[in-house]
Automatic annotation (TrEMBL), chain A:
GO terms classed as biological process: cell division; regulation of division septum assembly
Keyword line: Cell cycle, Cell division
InterPro entries in UniProt: MinE (IPR005527), MinE_sf (IPR036707)
Annotated family: Belongs to the MinE family.
Gene name as annotated: minE
Natural source organism: Roseicella frigidaeris
One Pfam family, short name: MinE
TM segment ranges: none
Protein name from the UniProt record: Cell division topological specificity factor
Automatic annotation (TrEMBL), chain B:
Encoding gene (name): minD
Name the UniProt record assigns to this protein: Septum site-determining protein MinD
GO cellular component: cytoplasmic side of plasma membrane; cytosol
Keywords: ATP-binding, Cell cycle, Cell division, Nucleotide-binding, Septation
Superkingdom per UniProt: Bacteria
Amino acid sequence: MSWLDFFRANRKPEPDSAAQAKERLQILLAHERIGRTREDFLPRLQQDLVAVVARYVAIDPAKVNVALDRGNDISTLAIEIELPSVRSAPAGAVEAARA
Amino acid sequence: MAQVIVVTSGKGGVGKTTTSAAFATGLAQAGKKTVVIDFDVGLRNLDLIMGVERRVVFDIVNVIQGEARLNQALIRDKRIENLSILPASQTRDKDALTKEGVNEIIEELSKDNDFILCDSPAGIEKGALLALYFADHAIVVTNPEVSSVRDSDRILGVLQSKSKRAEEKRDKVKEHLLVTRYDPNRVERGEMLKLEDVREILAIPLLGVIPENESVLRASNTGMPVILDGESIAGQAYKDAVSRFLGQELPHRFLEPEKKPGLLRRLFGGRAA
C-alpha cells in the first residue's frame, strides 16, 4: 500500500452503482418481457373467451374486455363480459371473473 | 449452403460494425469463404472499417434494383483470401431494401460461401429487421451498460418472433452473446456491470468478451479490422470468439484487471501501456 492510498481512503466511498444497474435492469426487463408475450396472447384469449361464452349466452363480442394489470408482486388478469339485458333476466347483468 | 449470421444489438455505437469486420476477417482467416454485408443503408460504414471505402463502385441497392450484378458490387479483400464485402448504399434510404431482393442476394451468395455475415443497423426498423430475417445465428453485441442490455433483450425478442426461422416455426435462431468494451478495472470498482450480471440477465450462451482497448480506435483509424492486430488484447479476444464460434473450447481471457504498476513506476515511470 502506498502513501497515496492513505488520502484515497479518506474519500467518501461511492455507492456501488453497478449493483443498482443490475437491480434496475432486472425489474425493468421482467416487466418488458411480460409485455412482449401479452401482445401475443391477449387478443387470442379474448377470441377464445368470446367463442366459449357465446355457446351458452348471446353476447356482443365488442363488449368483452380483457385487461392485464401488472403490479410489483402480483399481476391480475381481469376479464369482463357484459351480458345483454334479457327481459326475463335482471337488467344489466355484468359478470366479472378474476384470475 | 452458407450459414447466415446477423451481428445485431438494437442500440447504436456498441460495436456491431467493429465486430462484423473482425468476425468476417477471422472466419476468412480460418479458411472459411465469407462475405460480409452492410445493411445500414444511408449510413454505411463497414467499408470504412474494412479499409475498402475507395473501392466501392456499386452497392446492395444497385444489385436489388438491377442496376448492377452481384459480382460487380462485391469487393474482394486484398489482405485476406476468401473474404468479400457487399457495401450499403450511402444515398438511398432503408426503403430501397426489400425482402425479396435481400433473399435473392443471400441465395446467390449461399452457393459459394461458407458464411454470410449481416451487419445490422441500429434500431428495430426495416434495415435491422431485414438484416436478421434470414439469420441462422445471431451475435448480440452488448456493452455492460443498462441501455445496451435492455436493447439487447428487446432484439432477442424480435429474433424470436420476426425472423424467418420464427415465422416458419423451425429451430430458433442460435443466439450468441458478445460483450464488448468490457473494462475489468471499472468492474472491480463497482462502476460497471459484471460479466456474470449481463449473462444472468440476458441468459444466452456467451461467445466472447472484448475488453475496452485502445487498439479498436487505432484499427478504425487505419481501416484495418482489429482482429488483424494480433498483439492487441481486443484482437486476441476476437480471435478467441471466432474460434469458439467454429467449435473450439477456449477459456475467456482479459476478464481481470491488469497488474497495477508499483508506486515508483506511478511516480516516475510515465504512463502505463
